[in-house]
Amino acid sequence: MFSIHILYSIRFLTVLLGALPWILVAFDQNPISMLLFKGFCHQIPERTLIICGAPMAVCSRCAGIYAGIAIGAVTPSFGFMSEYGRTAVWMAFSIVLLDVAIQNFLLNSINHSLRITTGFIAGWTAITFLFSSIEK
């Protein structure tokens, strides 16, 4: 079992990881961040958020996932997540896949709000399940 200090350190590092694409765009570190996230995101320009004139290093869905990870890492653990979290994660990622299918095959348009929201739900659910399971 993890000590409370190790668990807080892991949570803190997870928050930093989740916030990293948002922090890097604030400092307009695009070449560095583009290389950093190249293996984690397709980085298609039309699917990427532009904040204060600077494009993010990840697409809007990945930006939502990273935000969900950051917020989920500071969310208190829920007891039910250790028991039902696996189902919740499958449901959250099913919603993401449904969003992908709808936007790519039916609408052929990009809805950043929906992409961020579904990504956030998936990231938050996964990290909340992880920390709830660790703390159990």
Describe this structure in words.
By secondary structure, the protein is mainly alpha-helical. The protein has one domain. 73% of the residues lie in helices and 7% in strands. The chain has helices at 4-26, 30-37, 60-74, 79-107, 112-135; strands at residues 48-51, 54-59. A two-stranded antiparallel sheet has the order 1-2. The longest helix is centred in the last third of the chain and has 29 residues, at 79-107. It is flat. The mean pLDDT is 89.
> Strand order, biggest sheet?
1-2
Q: Termini separation (Å)?
A: 9 Å
- The total domain count is 1
**How helical, in percent, are the residues?**
over 70%
Give the uncertain stretches in residue-range form.
none
Rounded average pLDDT: 89
Q: What is the N-to-C order of secondary-structure elements (H for helix, E for strand)?
A: HHEEHHH
Outline type: flat
Largest sheet: 2 strands, antiparallel
Strand content range? 5-15%
Contiguous helical run count:
5
Short précis:
This protein is mainly α.
Features:
single chain, 136 residues, mainly alpha, two-stranded antiparallel sheet, 5 helices
Task: Present the secondary structure layout.
Layout: H1 4-26, H2 30-37, E1 48-51, E2 54-59, H3 60-74, H4 79-107, H5 112-135
Antiparallel strand pairs: 1-2
Helix pairs in contact: 1-3, 3-5, 4-5
